[in-house]
Structures are given as structure tokens and as C-alpha cells.
Amino acid sequence: MPDRHRTESLLTATGAAAGYHGVPAVRGLDLAVGPGEVVSLLGPNGAGKTTSLLALVGLLPLMDGSVTALGRPVSARRPYLLARRGVALVPDDRGLFHGLTVDDHLRLSRRKPSPEREKLIFDTFPALAGLRGRKAGLLSGGEQQMLAVGAALLGEPRVLLVDEMSLGLAPKIVQEMLPAVRDLARAEGIGVVLVEQHVELALAVSDRAVVLNHGRPVLTGAAADLLKRRERLEAAYFGADEFSDTGHEVLPS
């Protein structure tokens, strides 16, 4: 995959810090996502991954640094404008209405009638095709996640952020969904940010990754390099003392 983020970035964070009640939960976040790229945010529970996503889409105000999406600064005052411009977030609770059907969700999500786009979603997640009249609350966890991601993609986003796609799902389903999202992102030129607990599955579909620990980035590198440097990856993930001393390590590309 070409390193397009160096020449064109759809979403950029520079020294971003955000938190709650005046206390930062993440700080010093640097991130750049280009068209067709997949970047993963990795780290243990409490590392600041979800906080990072909320700050990237303007649902949480920045305490320091900056975030730019689609060429404009992200403002926490009007995050809905960011969604209208083409930045979509799939939250960890999937954001579905359990009383609405699959078709209801897709109808509400699309910007305009587009049979071609809808066909693309059903081609990407074929299990949904036979469930169009079923209410979201009656879907399995995997089907709900497919619907949540499919509905977000139906809105034709230029940037897609997904929080914990694998939450509550069998690994087999995750192994099917992650490559499908990656392939569609590359075909459509969508920049994707994944927050994921299944580290190896995430790295297998990512171009680059940032490992967070204790609210700050400790290791950044190409996904392929991180898979080769498993000892560094594990040390960063589990918060080895060496990372407390050396700070943020960026693996050479």
C-alpha cells in the first residue's frame, strides 16, 4: 500500500489531548490517515482508545493539540457538521435502534437513493441480504455489527472510525468482517481508524498502528513491522518500564 498519508491526509491529529472533567485521558496523540488507509489504535483497556475516537470526531473537546478532518479543524461545538461532510463513527454499542428493521436503518443512513451503493453493502455483508425485514434487536451480535458498519458505509463517508468491531463477537466473524472493511476502504478510498482488542487481526488488515498505554502513544509503526517486532509490540501493549523511560517510539518505515 503506498504511503499516501504523507501527501494527502483525510484525518490528522497533532499532539491531541482530551479527557473528562479537566483530566486528560489521552495526550500527545499524533495520527494521520490517508485515502484507502487503515490505521489501528491498539492498547489495553483504559489506554485512551475510545477517548481518542471521540476527540477525533468532535464529540469530546480537545484539551491540547489539534485535529483536522477533510481539510478543516474539528470542532466539538458542532460535531454533526463533521458527519455531514463525510466522517462516520461506529461506536462500541453499535448505535442501532432495536425496534427498527435492517431496511429502516439503511433507509435512514443513505444520503440519497442509490441501488448501486446498497448492492455494494449487501455484497460486502451478504448475511444482511436475507434479514432486511428483521428488527435490529433480533439480530445476532455479528449481524448487528454488520448492519452498523454497513449503515455507516451507505452514507458514503470519506473517513470511517470503528470502535471495537470485535466486541462480543466470535473470532471467525471478526476474521470475515475486518478484511471486508479493509477491501471496501481501499476500493472506495475511505480512510479507516480501527480501535481493536484483537491485535493480530487488526494488524493483519492495517497499514499502520499506534499503541496507546496509560493515555499516551508509546509505539507507532507500519503494521507489518509491528507484527515482525512482537517483543516490542508486547512490551508497549503491557506497559513495560522501558516505555515509561523512553516515551514514544516510532519504528522506522
What's the SSE blueprint?
Blueprint: E1 11-20, E2 23-33, E3 38-42, H1 49-56, E4 62-69, E5 72-73, H2 79-85, E6 87-90, H3 102-109, H4 115-124, H5 141-154, E7 159-163, H6 171-188, E8 191-195, H7 199-205, E9 208-213, E10 216-222, H8 223-228, H9 230-237, H10 241-246, E11 249-250
Parallel strand pairs: 3-8, 3-9, 6-7, 7-8, 10-11
Antiparallel strand pairs: 1-2, 1-4, 4-5, 9-10
Helix pairs in contact: 3-5, 4-5, 6-7
Pfam family, one: ABC_tran
GO molecular function: ATP binding
Protein name: Branched-chain amino acid transport system ATP-binding protein
Helix and strand pattern: EEEHEEHEHHHEHEHEEHHHE
The CATH homologous superfamily of the domain at 4-86 and 157-250 is named P-loop containing nucleotide triphosphate hydrolases
Distance between the termini: 13 Å
CATH topology of the domain at 4-86 and 157-250: Rossmann fold
Taking strands numbered 1, 2, ... along the chain, how are they ordered across the largest sheet?
6-7-8-3-9-10-11
List its salient traits.
alpha/beta; disordered N terminus; Rossmann fold; 253 residues; seven-stranded mixed beta sheet; 26% strand
